[in-house]
DNA sequence: CTGTTAGCGCATTCAT
DNA sequence: ATGAATGCGCTAACAG
């Protein structure tokens, strides 16, 4: 059996209340008893049970975090940012990996609720009516990362302006002189990296009066290197070839470049490539990748900061933090050769 | 106020015991009451409080995980593996990032204990007498990843044979014909990636009767790309140059290659490079990296499996899982040119 | 200053 | 089959 406050009290010859008082320094206790008690604590190796404390105070000191996967540096950056703020605010984080499944996510949200999380951060790409319902009824403050919270007024969000960022990236290609520009995009159910970045791409084309071409847009379900490879393969199969391809993320861009290298297509000589995320990969690949930089770590920090703020005030609010992004020009882009 | 079992009981016109019984299906309850209660649960949106349950059952369903950082794919792979097993065993994961500080880690272990974790997994590089003490007295089963647990008989470990793996990598260089082989190694306080891989390097040299050269060994405190860059710079400053360099990890290898490229040294023409980890980077960098593959995800799975096994049996044990590794030959290595 | 007591929310005896 | 009562480990209000 684990040692309880009662064991300590007995050993020190005092009441449990007195033990509690010295451990929490909640009330003055005579020096003599204090010493006896500390000695008993030492000898028994007593550690107060945080579960019992939580039950009394209705404060668990726990925040729940859900991410679809952790292997992607974007998500691990988020987690690291969240964890650092949580830690320095005295909170512990419960991490759940949803694997992109809506059902899993909802189940985790339920678990977070029964486990009395004081705050919840969700960094997910999927969204459903049940999600919406859950966040509406959730008793604790919540922050959603990476996608607007819709009309939810009691939920904070930390995002970047994906549409604008994508628009700027494609505009840069147009300014270089490109007019035949393709895109390897993410899935339609992914609001941020799927839909919004595609919308930004369309914005830039529209602004330059460039009619969009179906054959130059490949839709992928995942954001892995292989998706870039397959997406580029699909686009390359079109009769007329684009001179530039904007990719929904760096991994896709790398995969695209791998396919092009296999086919003997020179980057950026024959085809320019732009990525998104500026993960470490982007600097290391050859040629180094022109891409959109943003800061997942900082995003996690912001999200956790908004959350702790709400937890302190004991009330939910609906702030939106839009983090900066920036086009980083490297060596995978050049004016078209013709 | 949050809704409790009492509210449900009142609303359904029954005692709290009956509500508890239908929710846990612990005893038969008449169909009529059962329906009334379920209705009351629906209407109130009642969720049982897991904290109160934990207090009764002395089971929190929580496992604590400590990693030094999450940004490195090795650690995120571990976490993903652990999380997947924990989840399917009905446990939730509390994640703590220690930032390599011994004090932080010890504090987290204390927190894990007060928070009544049912199991603890530590993937750390540092070690101290206090660590040892903590694991000896810890009431819950523990698994240490990445380093032998010393003489701790009640702690499981999941490791790879770093020394042998490093030995094989360097032996491969020797078989290619190299005799002037350097190493960019990790810090001395890092048992696995620092000391053991260096020991393996020395083993291979010794076996081939190659005297070690101080100038060809660079010691780095971190495992980042910049460390490889600086380490290679240091080694390149030696009067006589090596023809091959074994690196303690892939990032270091990439950094080394970046320096060499800047200096116009061809890889593998003038100098061969071997990495360690086989992270995604290794396939993508040019030239692609010869490296030692192992499986962090699988390691996390093994660790979590050993942990859940112990938690089920309610007793600690001292198993050791040694996971496989494998040299993957790519394009960064070749016979020496002379 | 110190001890006794009443819960925190729930599961589980023990009665009925 | 159901309800009342006890207690998990601890804190806080109440007495002394």
Automatic annotation (TrEMBL), chains A, B:
<keyword id="KW-0238">DNA-binding</keyword>
<feature type="domain" description="HTH lacI-type">
    <location>
        <begin position="3"/>
        <end position="57"/>
    </location>
</feature>
<dbReference type="InterPro" id="IPR010982">
    <property type="entry name" value="Lambda_DNA-bd_dom_sf"/>
</dbReference>
<dbReference type="Pfam" id="PF13377">
    <property type="entry name" value="Peripla_BP_3"/>
</dbReference>
<dbReference type="InterPro" id="IPR000843">
    <property type="entry name" value="HTH_LacI"/>
</dbReference>
<dbReference type="GO" id="GO:0000976">
    <property type="term" value="F:transcription cis-regulatory region binding"/>
</dbReference>
<protein>
    <submittedName>
        <fullName>Catabolite control protein A</fullName>
    </submittedName>
</protein>
<dbReference type="GO" id="GO:0003700">
    <property type="term" value="F:DNA-binding transcription factor activity"/>
</dbReference>
<keyword id="KW-0804">Transcription</keyword>
<dbReference type="InterPro" id="IPR046335">
    <property type="entry name" value="LacI/GalR-like_sensor"/>
</dbReference>
<dbReference type="InterPro" id="IPR028082">
    <property type="entry name" value="Peripla_BP_I"/>
</dbReference>
<keyword id="KW-0805">Transcription regulation</keyword>
<dbReference type="Pfam" id="PF00356">
    <property type="entry name" value="LacI"/>
</dbReference>
């Amino acid at each position: 059996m684990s040692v309880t406050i009662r064991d300590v009290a007995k050993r020190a010859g005092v009441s449990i209340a007195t033990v509690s008082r010295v451990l929490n320094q909640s009330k003055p206790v005579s020096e003599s008893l204090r010493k006896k008690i500390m000695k008993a604590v030492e000898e028994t190796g007593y550690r107060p049970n945080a579960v019992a404390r939580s039950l009394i105070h209705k404060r668990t000191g726990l925040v729940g975090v859900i991410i679809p996967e952790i292997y992607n540096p974007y998500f691990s950056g988020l987690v690291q940012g969240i964890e650092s703020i949580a830690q320095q605010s005295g909170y512990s984080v419960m991490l759940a990996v949803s694997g992109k499944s809506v059902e899993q996510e909802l189940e985790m949200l339920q678990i977070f609720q029964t486990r009395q999380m004081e705050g919840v951060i969700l960094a997910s790409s999927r969204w459903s009516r049940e999600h919406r319902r859950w966040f509406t009824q959730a008793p604790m403050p919540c922050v959603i990362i990476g996608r607007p919270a819709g009309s939810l007024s009691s939920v904070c969000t930390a995002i970047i302006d994906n549409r604008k960022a994508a628009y700027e990236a494609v505009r840069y290609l147009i300014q270089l002189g490109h007019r035949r520009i393709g895109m390897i995009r993410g899935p339609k159910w992914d609001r941020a990296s799927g839909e919004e970045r595609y919308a930004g791409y369309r914005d830039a084309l529209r602004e330059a009066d460039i009619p969009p071409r179906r054959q130059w847009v490949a839709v992928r379900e995942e954001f892995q290197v292989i998706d870039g490879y397959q997406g580029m393969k699909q686009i390359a199969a079109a009769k007329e070839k684009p001179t530039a391809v904007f990719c929904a993320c760096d991994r896709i861009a790398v995969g695209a470049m791998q396919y092009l290298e296999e086919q003997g297509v020179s980057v950026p000589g024959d085809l320019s490539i732009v990525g998104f995320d500026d993960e470490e990969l982007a600097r290391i690949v050859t040629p180094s990748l022109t891409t959109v930089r943003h800061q997942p770590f900082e995003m996690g920090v912001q999200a956790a900061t908004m959350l702790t703020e709400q937890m302190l005030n004991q009330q939910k609010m609906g702030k939106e933090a839009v983090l900066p992004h920036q086009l980083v020009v490297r060596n995978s882009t050049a004016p078209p050769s013709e």
